[in-house]
Amino acid sequence: MVVPSPMIRTKKTKAVGIPVIDLSMERSELREQVVKACEEYGFFKVVNHGVPREVISRIGEEGAQFFAKPTSEKRKASPATPFGYGCRNIGPNGDMGNLEYLLLHTNPVSISERCKTITNDPTKFSCAVNDYIGVAKELVCEILELVAEGLCVPNKFSLSNLIRDAEGDSLFRINHYPHVNHKGNKNWDLSKDGPKDNDNNSNNIGFGEHSDPQILTILWSNNVSGLQISTHDGLWIPVPPDSNEFFIMVGDILQVLTNGRFRSVRHRAVTNTINTRMSMMYFAAPPQNWWIAPMPKMVTPQNPSLYKPFTWAQYKQAAYSLRLGDSRLDLFKVQQQQQQHSHHENHSP
Ligand SMILES: C=C1C[C@]23C[C@@]1(O)CC[C@H]2[C@@]12CC[C@H](O)[C@@](C)(C(=O)O1)[C@H]2[C@@H]3C(=O)O
Ligand SMILES: O=C(O)CCC(=O)C(=O)O
Ligand SMILES: [Fe+2]
Questions:
Q1: What's 301's DSSP letter?
Q2: Could you tell me which residue ranges the Fe2OG dioxygenase domain spans (predicted)?
């Protein structure tokens, strides 16, 4: 079902409805809708997801309490290299945004160690994170099983098994964006260190344009707008926030697994002029040494494999060696000549 969003128009954005999928609907219709949304937008909102509100509000409150602390306190959390507390710097290659964040690996040992540097009550914080991660992981698995069914993949667990493994490399992130007026920051003591507002606009970028490298991302945010997704024709669609629901994003690895039938969604977050936005993302990824290649079902003589096989560790290394907005998938594409060659091989008598 495509529900029209409110008709908001800003420069270079487009007023379009984003897909809203009711997870309580009949399964055969549900899997069709999930596949369609992944093909058309690489993005959709899920309603009737069954995640208890209390699990979301507990981690939401822990996050809000952390970001409300003085900067000197927040800096006691280990710096995000890549895991820990980050402010304005995104990744290792000079990307900057108007935000602060906590980035955590979802391994329980890593969480319990990291939480000791984040708060005086690490047990409470880590319980809230672990409970949230648990429900987010289940939701991702459910969606990946619907995708596998919808694509008629013989084993409906072949995608969800990628992230169920105990060695999985999934991440959890909480982003906190200050509200910013056109002249610069109103509510933030670190504004002086950030990018200068030459075009009256650069301060509005909270998290610059990119796709997520992983398989699937589950995003929750408070009721403050900011998230925008890019359509295939390059226009930006503002996503109306909804703190009762989740948003799902196709990541680069799902694009590879489906041999390009799904495309990872390019997205960004802009700061709000009035309110502070907080978002939480679960980035679902396989274990580092697992091989990624298009699923056999998605490869035919007419649709030869578009990507060379690689491990998740190799892909991550590529992502971390590039800038946020760079197109890392290009590095793993099969050359066109090779594709034609394999097409002829498949057709030779
Ligand atoms: C600039 C970068 C930050 C990032 C790693 C990268 O080199 C390129 C991908 C970025 C991204 C985007 C989605 C997630 O927020 C993230 C955690 C991820 O896995 O890839 C970030 C990385 C990061 O902030 O460390
Ligand atoms: O904060 C948001 O709404 C989006 C953040 C995001 O895309 C990311 O952290 O990868
Ligand atoms: Fe993202």
A1: S
A2: 167-286
* Nearest protein Cα to ligand 2, atom 7: 268
Query: Is CATH 2.60.120.330 correct for 20-346?
Result: yes
Sign of the dihedral through C-alpha 332, 338, 344, 348: negative
Q: Cα dihedral angle (305, 310, 316, 318), rounded to 10 degrees?
A: -80
Give the closest residue to 176 by CA, choosing from 67, 57, 80, 90.
67
pLDDT tens for 42-100 read: 999 999 999 999 999 999 999 999 999 999 999 999 899 999 999 999 999 999 999 99
Complex ipTM value: 0.99
**What is the distance in A from the centroid of ligand 3 to the CA of 323?**
13
Of 308, 301, 310, residue with least CA distance to 347: 301
Could you tell me the residue ranges of all domains in the chain? 20-346
Pocket of ligand 1 (CB under 6 A): 82, 90-91, 93, 95, 103, 171, 173, 210, 212-213, 283, 319-320, 322-324
Q: How far is the CA of 294 from the centre of ligand 1 (A)?
A: 23
287-343 residue pLDDT tens: 999 999 999 999 999 999 999 999 999 999 999 999 999 999 999 999 876 666 655
